[in-house]
From TrEMBL:
Residues 22-41 bind DNA. The keyword Transmembrane does not apply. This is Transcriptional regulator, TetR family. Pfam families: TetR_N (PF00440). Residues 1-59 form the HTH tetR-type domain. Keywords: DNA-binding. One of its GO terms (molecular function) is DNA binding. It comes from Flavobacterium gillisiae.
Length: 199
């Protein structure tokens, strides 16, 4: 039952936001009593924390799956971007990440600490992969470009309340990041990805 509550809560939080969903809402949606939820979670903060842990795990497992598909470095980034767009497409207008930061700052800080570490590792692997295949310039300072990119992405998510605008800015940041690193071959691949209507 605990796992079912976490799963339903994560679905509702993503769709309608961390602030607006109450324990009553979750109980009503699951046709159980609020008392049943409190049996496993003494307060909403604990449920939010467990939910963000589950979402973090699911996102990172999906990213690992995409990486294992062995796309080229640029296509890989666009596939990951598409995965995020699909995951958050039914979200309320207010970005879930923005809401988490605003209403549950301690939980947000914990999530971000893990995110920065793991995303930095992926960004670095992606840049090295792109250099090896000739899509990114060989003279790049990899660590600097990793910092540039995660600073861009996390600032967009932290400071943009609208999920729709955040997604648009993230796509523009991905294009900016790729153009800054790309060789002529990489620019051609980037243009192909930008023409893809599913992104």
């Amino acid at each position: 039952m605990k796992e079912k509550i976490i799963s339903k809560a994560s679905e509702m939080f993503l769709k309608l936001g961390f602030k607006s969903i109450t324990m009553d809402d979750i109980a009503g949606e699951m046709c159980i009593s609020k008392k049943t939820i409190y049996k496993y979670f003494c307060n909403k903060e604990l449920l939010v924390e467990e939910t963000t842990t589950l979402l973090h795990k699911e996102i990172h497992e999906t990213i690992d799956t995409i990486i294992q598909m062995n796309y080229n470095a640029i296509e890989e980034n666009f596939k990951i971007r598409k995965m995020f767009s699909e995951m958050f497409k039914s979200s309320a207008d207010t970005s879930p990440v923005y809401q988490l930061k605003k209403h549950y700052p301690e939980i947000y800080a914990k999530v971000m600490l893990k995110e920065i570490n793991e995303c930095s590792m992926w960004f670095k692997q992606n840049i090295q992969k792109g250099i090896t295949s000739g899509l990114y310039r060989a003279d790049l300072d990899v660590d600097t470009y990793v910092k540039f990119y995660y600073t861009l992405i996390f600032n967009i998510n932290e400071n943009t309340s609208s999920e729709k605008i955040a997604q648009k800015l993230e796509l523009e940041a991905l294009e900016y990041h790729t153009r800054a690193m790309a060789t002529l071959t990489g620019i051609t691949e980037l243009e192909n990805q930008l023409l893809n209507p599913t992104i």
